[in-house]
Amino acid sequence: SKIAQFDAKGMVTDASVSPDGKSLAILTYRAVWVITLPANSENIFNGPMLYTPLSPPVLSWQIEGCAWLDAETLLVGSEQGDLFKIHLSALKPVK
To answer: Is the N end or the C end of the chain the one with fewer CB atoms within 10 Å?
Structure first.
């Protein structure tokens, strides 16, 4: 069931909920978004949001997967087999 809509400014390739259940990471080929999940059933995209563009090496451009290493660190992987670490401190507030 569709519960919300979000313009990720690109094709979404993966999404992952943080270990503490408080954040949702959304990955595209060129960006990472992290949304603070609401405590109730309101629209999940209305809360605080962080963003960073991605600039992978030319030979790792197909960023396809993300997972949380811990509550402050994301791992993202490319279809070419490369793995990258992104600290939430590198993301900028959007709203």
So the answer is: N
